């Protein structure tokens, strides 16, 4: 094999990569040393803005295989045949901390999946939790500010975390989930993934269904206690990354089975919970899980920056047969992600290999911008309609339309018969074993007892009381005990 020659960015051979050029042996350095200037300047530009949330993550390639017929519910081509495989890329993440944070912390985990389908990329950008803290996107920046580092102290503050929750009773369900046993997964392999939002499927006949996605881990659920988490996070900040990387390198390919809950569109209006409220689940007794297929991860990225840091997932990357529901959070996210990508990666981020629709190459009249690498032949026109044979629209909407009525305005969610902020949080508490309940109470009290203002503590306690009187009483007692001993 011929020896590889080190070159500058313009391809010229580099004579010396150990010593800078200077004016004589002891003299100052020379401006003409192109290799030195280029090397230092390039180094200064290695970082790009980190994700404003979910900054820390790990990625892997794999495939999705259909195991069950769902053609009665969606006409998505990648789901149209049992046995069909579609290439995928997944990025797991923690949410609140910055790039340098630790993996084994109490925090939701991101579960962002890209399907490289023959009809374009389909992104399902979910979490390991079936619900979320808030239900209107207008609250998201405030929510995240309260959970990330304080602008003065530069660290996460229980005062801010719990103050926001004191004003957000709708978060009680997700808080109960997060403070419970599943709040610190042992690894990315040992947790479930959820689409969390409700999405719409449309079949070939034009019939609409609302669906919720559940990816159940085939490795089994494994979690860490708060004490185990603290110990592991202190010893190895990269514990999840190490686990995923090593498992796939060893050929122990993690997998998940995808199930969906399916609601015929006509049932949405009369369902006991508002089906578009992301702080609520649909109990399985109402809508049972139906198996769709399995996700297998079998290849690590070659380069973390190129493929994981530059990965861009957007909840509005849909394919025919799969579209959004009117969930307001989902609607807000349909702006936020591509906007974040344009800021973080630039307008041509969809041309990066990890993001490009490799099984259905993009063909449109979008042009130019920084780092444009996609352009057609010399005869392609950059406008449409045209008299040449450029790409044209299909006239086939991706999904069935929805009828709407009413006046524009700012509204809270329409309440269905069983809707309130607390019922499902109480149900989750009552579902737990008494050991689990004890750990949940201890975890909540551990945080809440650090809050400096009594009124903030009281408001939070009222939420747990409303979820279940026993739950509230136990948290109240545990908080009092901890505060007395502080
Ligand atoms: C209105 C509410 C929300 C807004 C405005 C929002 C916004 C964002 C933004 C700006 C990013 C960074 C994207 C990037 O730089 O590439 C992000 C990442 C992410 N968000 Fe959200 N988010 C919201 C709610 C949610 C919810 C409800 C979920 C889960 C169900 C979720 C899951 C994720 C995941 C998994 C990532 C990381 C994606 C990746 O790995 O690149 N977000 N979010």
Structure description:
By secondary structure, the chain is of the alpha+beta class. The protein has two domains: 57-351, Catalase HpII,  Chain A, domain 1 (Beta Barrel); 423-484, no CATH class. Helices cover 28% and strands 16% of the residues. It is built from twelve helices and ten strands. Strands 1, 2, 3, 4, 5, 6, 7, 8, 9 and 10 form a ten-stranded antiparallel sheet that branches. Strand 3 and strand 4 form a beta hairpin. It is globular. The N and C termini lie far apart (68 Å). Protoporphyrin IX containing FE binds next to strand 2, strand 3, strand 4 and helix 8.
Structural class: alpha+beta
Kindly provide the radius of gyration, computed on alpha-carbon positions and rounded to a whole number of angstroms: 25 Å
Bin the helical content: 25-40%
β-strand percent reads 15-25%
Topology:
Elements: H1 34-44, E1 57-66, E2 85-94, E3 109-117, E4 120-127, H2 140-147, H3 158-166, H4 172-179, E5 193-194, E6 199-202, E7 208-217, H5 226-235, H6 239-249, E8 255-264, E9 290-299, H7 304-309, E10 322-324, H8 328-344, H9 423-431, H10 434-448, H11 454-467, H12 469-484
Helix pairs in contact: 2-3, 3-11, 4-9, 10-12, 11-12
List keywords for this structure.
486 residues; alpha+beta; Catalase HpII,  Chain A, domain 1; 2 domains; 10-stranded antiparallel β-sheet; globular; binds protoporphyrin IX containing FE
